[in-house]
Structures are given as C-alpha cells and as structure tokens.
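Students often ask why we bother encoding 3D structure as a string. The short answer is that it lets us treat folding as translation between two languages. Here is a chain of 251 residues written in the first language.
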Amino acid sequence: MDEKTLRELLRQVRAGRLSESAAIERLRHFAFEELGFAKVDHHRPLRQGFAEVVFGRGKTPQQVAEIVRSMLARNDSRHNILVTRADRRIHAAVKRLARNAKFHPLSGAIVIERDRTIRGKGSILVVSAGTSDIPVAEEALVAARALGNRAEAIYDVGVAGLHRLLNHRDRLTSARVIICVAGMEGALPSVVAGLVAAPVIAVPTSIGYGASFSGVAALLAMLNSCASNVSVVNIDNGFGAACVASCMNRL
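And here it is in the second language, the structure alphabet:
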C-alpha cells in the first residue's frame, strides 16, 4: 500500500464504487501480516516511500519464499521486491514464485521488477576504489535501481591511481548523489567529495590486509574525513547507502 493506492481506495469508497467492507478487507493488514516467523510490513511504502526489503542471510530459502509470497499477494501495491544477501538456493525458491526474479551473483541480490517508475530527480553514481570492492558496490547499484533511481557505476578508480578517477570528472560532477565504496585505508570518499558539490555517502568495505581490521580502519578514516559533504554507513552496507541516496535523490 502506497499513498497513490490509498487515495484511489478512498475515492472509490466515496464514489460508491467500493463498499466499506471491501475497503476494510484491503486494509486488514494495515500494520503488518503475521507469518509466525516474520511480520511483513506491507504499509512501509505509505510511510517511507519504498517497500520493505528482505535480508536473506540467516533465513532459510523457505522463509524468504514465504515472505516474498506474502508481498506478491498484495496486488494493491505493485512495488519492486528486493532480497539482499541471498544465494542461489534462495533464488531458486523465489523463482518458483516469480519467474522474472533476477539474481545478481556478485552482490547476492534478487530483484523482482514490478515497477519501472523513476522517482529520483537526478542520477546516483556508485564509485568503487578497487575491483575487490565491487560486490558491495553492486549491492548499492542494484538496490538504487530497484528503489526507482537512475543509477550507474564506475569501478576500480582508487587512490593508488588518481588519474583513473579524474578521467571520469564529468560523470562525478553531474551526479546528484554519489555512493563511494572503498576498503583498505578508505581514502577515496574524501578525494571524491573534494571534487563535487553533491552529497557523498561513504561505504567502508571489509577488504584489506590485517591492520584494516575487516573494514574498521576504512570506517574510522571515513568518519574522520575532512570533506564536509561526506556521510558514512556501516561496513559493507551497500544497501543502506542506496536507501539514503534514494531519499536524498527524491528531495
């Protein structure tokens, strides 16, 4: 249920084309739908502008499939369905419910596309420091597109060779929001932010040698950035960066 659908429902009741009982039935799961092992929040689009996203890791394929089945059954809101941190077993279970469920193996994301509406005012650019950071960057890219944004990516433009980054300066300056993904020392977001006026969402990754402490070094470096237009999400949290970028892109 989103705002557009709710307004249409109220108009139908007012015009007498829909009975109060039928309207109540559609709104019966207003808060959430109880599945026993999960409570599916069908009305998140109404509150936040985008649907609940299923985190696949730690769930069985059957649990993910039942959540997706519940979301597919709510035809009053034809939003895209996104599952993150999934694997091929989960994809196989979901694909039995929706043949168009697409699996993105690099990020582990599954997308069931039901709405191609672009809601973002500009474009989101995902930039990764190294090739090893691509899985997290891909999660951000897939999620940003599923949330209704124009999004593109530039990969392997880290600080070890800044000429690679500067070669894309036009694309950097034309983006409305930039998601910058980096491991190791996590320096790239500060560099990118110094080149643009757009907000930069920094994503530290767990890529690096021992003293990187599985992304903690990059996280601390990004939190201490001297660039004033940098904000930081959690380690490896490409999805979270995409959500924040999507909110900014709709303002």
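Translate back mentally: The mean pLDDT is 91. Keep this in mind for the problem set.
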